[in-house]
Write a structure and sequence with these properties.
mainly alpha; 10 helices; 81% helix; Methane Monooxygenase Hydroxylase, Chain G, domain 1; Syntaxin-11 isoform X2; SNARE binding; coiled coil; T_SNARE_dom; single chain
Length: 281
């Protein structure tokens, strides 16, 4: 299975946002001044989503540790593999929940735009929170994808090494084709299984193959989230383009205004009535 997030990475490569963004908790000074309940609700929901994104990131780091244990310490441990699957299931569950809440935040921002206009503080805060959280969520899901793909490549490399031990030279492309077409026996057939070394290599190949199948199942299970994430990034990029267009228009208007102001200053300095006034003083 190829990298499920390659399209997402291409879309978002130029707009990376650190997942460790500051919390959006309502400042204490604002609470003392009776902040608008709608604005407080926006900050409250943003904090909850941000917390869940951080929990996903924590799960991703835990999954990396578990994958490392599978690779380096306990290749035959069903308990470790179950832990990896449980962590991946937790990531999937939280990711689906965050996606749904981001969609709701997006719809709420659109409603605020219709109700209060694009220049209202409520709309701008809601849209800014949505944009930042969407970027953070995208980044943490890319980290998850990276962790699984790195584990996949490590398993493939290990299979290649073990096949060399049993006398079968294969390339990474051949291993990939074997996995894609489910032709596992094509490389292990006709191997003389005499000797502990050869038997151990075959056992490890079988373990890694099982491991890869489980990993593929995990990726397929969260594929829908990846697709929704890709759509969100496309929408986010369109929004960024819209904002950039408006910023450029504002810059152009500002430059035009500054140009007129500079001309006015020059005219003021060359104003004959002003010169007469100063001479008379």
């Amino acid at each position: 299975m190829k990298d499920r997030l390659s399209h997402l990475q291409a879309l978002s490569a130029s707009s990376h946002v650190d997942t460790r963004e500051p919390a959006a908790t309502v400042p204490h000074s604002l609470k003392e001044h009776n902040i608008d309940p709608e604005m407080e609700a926006i900050f409250y929901e943003a904090d909850n989503i941000r917390r869940d994104i951080q929990l996903i990131l924590s799960d991703v780091k835990h999954l990396e540790e578990q994958n490392s244990r599978v690779r380096n310490e306990l290749p035959n441990s069903s308990t470790v593999k179950q832990d990896s699957n449980a962590i991946a299931a937790s990531i999937k569950s939280r990711a689906k929940d965050v996606l749904a809440r981001l969609r709701n935040m997006d719809m709420h921002a659109t409603e605020l735009e219709k109700k209060h206009g694009t220049n209202s503080a409520l709309y701008r805060i809601a849209r800014t929170q949505y944009a930042g959280l969407s970027s953070s969520f995208r980044d943490v899901m890319m980290e998850y994808n990276k962790a699984e793909m790195n584990h996949r490549e490590t398993c493939k490399t290990h299979i290649q090494r073990q096949l060399e031990i049993v006398g079968r030279e294969v390339t990474g492309e051949q291993v990939e084709e074997m996995l894609s077409n489910d032709q596992w026996n094509i490389f292990s057939e006709n191997v003389v299984t005499e000797g502990k070394t050869v038997q151990s290599a075959l056992n490890q190949i079988e373990n890694r193959h099982t491991e890869l199948l489980e990993l593929e199942s995990r990726i397929r299970g969260i594929h829908e989230v990846f697709l929704d994430m890709a759509m969100l990034v496309e929408e986010q990029n369109s929004m960024i383009d819209y904002i950039q267009t408006n910023v450029q228009k504002t810059d152009a208007d500002l430059k035009n205004m500054l140009g007129k102001l500079e001309n006015a200053k020059k005219y003021a300095r060359n104003n004959p009535f002003k010169k007469i006034f100063f001479r008379r003083r």
